[in-house]
Amino acid sequence: MKIKSIRGSIKYNGTVYEEGDIFEIEDTDFSQLQENIEIVEDNLEDEQTYSNDEVMDIELDEVDLNSFNISTLKKIAKEKDIKLSDKMTKQEIINAIESNGK
């Protein structure tokens, strides 16, 4: 997946990437870096996109929010009246949706 460093520099596979740099990582390394990055291009094939009507019908307790792409997560948040900042990572959006749903 392609990511962008958003919080300082990151050393990955022997290369130091400065804040704002875009580079490729293995999907398996995402969890280690997620606090300092933003996904630019996600090559996970199991992610789905949904229309606004489909988003309204999603029961948050019955789905894995990690399976959605960022644009769908933003649609879910908007439909659920959850305020998001522009620079939130995918995990931060998921956390906001989950905490609002409780």
Explain the overall architecture:
The chain is α+β, with helices and mostly antiparallel strands. It has 2 domains: 40 residues; 50 residues. It is built from 4 helices and 5 strands, in the order ββββαβααα. The strands form 2 sheets. A 3-stranded antiparallel sheet has the order 4-1-5, with no helix packed on it. The protein has a two-stranded antiparallel ribbon with strand order 2-3. It is elongated. The N and C termini lie far apart (31 Å).
Specify the overall morphology. elongated
**Main beta-sheet annotation:** 3 strands, antiparallel
What is the first-to-last residue Cα distance?
A: 31 Å
Helix content: 25-40%
Q: How do the strands of the widest beta sheet line up side by side?
A: 4-1-5
Radius of gyration: 15 Å
- The total domain count is 2
What structural category arises from helix and sheet content?
alpha+beta
Write the H/E string, N to C: EEEEHEHHH
> How many beta-strand elements?
5
Stretches where pLDDT falls below 50 for ≥5 residues?
none
Our count of helices gives 4
- Report the portion of residues in β strands: 15-25%
Name the average pLDDT. Answer: 80
Quick rundown:
The protein has helices at residues 30-33, 52-56, 70-79, 90-101; strands at 2-5, 10-12, 15-17, 22-24, 37-41. The chain is an alpha+beta fold and 102 residues long. The chain folds into 2 domains: 2-41; 52-101.
Q: Which terms would index this structure?
A:
102 residues, 2 domains, three-stranded antiparallel β-sheet, two-stranded antiparallel ribbon, 5 strands
